[in-house]
Amino acid sequence: MRKLYTIITALLLTGCGSDNVNMKKIIFLHHSTGYNIWTGNTNRYLYKITGKGDVEKYFDKHNRTHSTNYQIVERYFPKLSPYGWSNYPYDYYNIWVKNAGDEPYMEEPTLEILTGEYDVIIFKHCYPGSNIKEDTGYPDINSSEKRVENYKLQYNALKEKMKEFPENKFIVWTPAVNTRALMSEDEARRTREFYDWIMNEWDEKGDNIFIWDFYKHETEGGLWLADKNALSPDNSHPGKEFSGRMSPLFSRFIIDVMESAVD
């Protein structure tokens, strides 16, 4: 009897015989635009009470229906202090490539840390990243200036870094953009140039990096965040109705990536 008890205890401690064996953990790194999609149509007061937005509820339903154990969490990245409220290509490059390692950089987790805890890492940039300046002809990977020439170098370095973790999967959002009132046509065209480069050159089939095309949904084929999809023409956050439509599409894409249903 004592031997049987010992075996059962060992199984419980190692997670054998429990759902923990099949648990897949996902983290969504974002700021305010991502938060709106995360909560979707969920009332903000209800969200404070339940702690669950549309994305989490989608995963809960999928887990119940398909007997899966996908656990998704969100996190502001980087947080306001001490690093600062910037999540553009330079910042991911700075934290994950330039300052890579097993220790956090300015209290932010490196990929070495994140990949040890999560199976899938999702990240995005906020819409000020679309206020892109003209190229200088002298690209600088260590520059925080928002220029396509710098973005490309930083994205290439990020791609090589993510490939160092073949057991993990990464989901990258295409650029979030401003409304027409908050972005010049030149800036909009540069953002489209960067978007086209991501989709047609940077993205590679068969690797561990997947693209969720948020830009396509926001712009609906135009150069700007469509006013009807924005909180208002003067506010480039996604509106409630648009966020509610995007939450299930985003959630389904994550699951498809996890189940190898997309390249």
Describe the secondary structure blueprint for this structure:
Layout: H1 2-14, E1 24-30, H2 32-39, H3 44-50, H4 54-66, E2 70-76, H5 89-98, H6 111-117, E3 120-123, H7 148-162, E4 169-173, H8 185-202, E5 209-212, H9 214-219, E6 230-232, E7 235-238, H10 240-258
Parallel strand pairs: 1-2, 1-3, 3-4, 4-5
Antiparallel strand pairs: 6-7
Q: What is the share of helical residues?
A: 40-55%
H/E element order: HEHHHEHHEHEHEHEEH
The total of beta strands comes to 7
Alpha-beta content class: alpha/beta
Uncertain spans: 1-19
State the distance separating the first and last CA atoms: 51 Å
Roughly how many Å is the radius of gyration? 20 Å
* Average of per-residue pLDDT values: 92
- What is the CATH superfamily classification? SGNH hydrolase
Indicate the CATH topology.
Rossmann fold
Main sheet specs: 5 strands, parallel
- Beta-strand portion reads 5-15%
Overall geometry comes to: globular
CATH class: Alpha Beta
What is the spatial order of strands in the main beta sheet?
2-1-3-4-5
Overall domain count:
1
CATH architecture field: 3-Layer(aba) Sandwich
How many DSSP H or I helices? 10
